[in-house]
């Protein structure tokens, strides 16, 4: 179980590395554009979840802190939760990466923010939304945005 727990993260590392260390490489956008990149940790989730599906179903249909605490003692249940978190973080990081590239937010700003998304996505995501809003306002207030395009004029 420990191997699958570790593997659920390590299979995502190449995608994170592309987004963080090679954000402007054309193959990065091509690879990251596919939502299928989250499939591998989800396959690991499925492999581990099938034998404990009853316990997981109970947790999601009648959640309680005590039930989740008790279930987390089972390495299979904890591994499924971990794989789900890893898949979600990658999906969210993928969206952040693609959105930041579309908005031309500088990769040197985005690299640390993507690392933060790996570590603490509930904190990194709202920070990215603030960065995104700041970039939008900066672009809207820039003189280049106010001038008509000379090519089309």
From TrEMBL:
Q: Which domain of life is it from?
A: Bacteria
One Pfam family cited in the UniProt record for this chain: ABA4-like
Q: Which residues cross the membrane?
A: 7-25, 37-60, 72-97, 109-131
The answer to whether UniProt assigns keyword Membrane to this entry is yes
The cross-references to InterPro entries, in alphabetical order and at most eight, read: ABA4-like (IPR025461)
Which keywords, in A-to-Z order, does the entry hold?
Membrane, Transmembrane, Transmembrane helix
Task: Provide the protein name.
Answer: Uncharacterized protein DUF4281
């Amino acid at each position: 179980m420990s191997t699958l727990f570790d593997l659920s993260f390590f299979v995502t590392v190449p995608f994170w590395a592309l987004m963080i260390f090679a954000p402007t490489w054309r193959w990065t956008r091509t690879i990251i554009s596919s939502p299928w990149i989250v499939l591998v940790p989800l396959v690991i989730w499925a492999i581990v979840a099938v034998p404990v599906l009853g316990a997981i179903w109970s947790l999601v249909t009648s959640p309680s802190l005590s039930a989740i605490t008790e279930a987390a003692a089972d390495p299979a249940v904890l591994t499924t939760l971990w794989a789900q978190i890893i898949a979600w973080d990658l999906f969210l990081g993928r969206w952040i990466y693609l959105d930041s590239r579309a908005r031309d937010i500088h990769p040197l700003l985005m690299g640390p923010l993507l690392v933060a998304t790996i570590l603490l996505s509930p904190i990194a995501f709202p920070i990215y939304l603030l960065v995104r809003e700041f970039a939008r306002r900066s672009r809207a207030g820039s003189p280049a945005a106010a001038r008509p395009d000379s090519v089309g004029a």
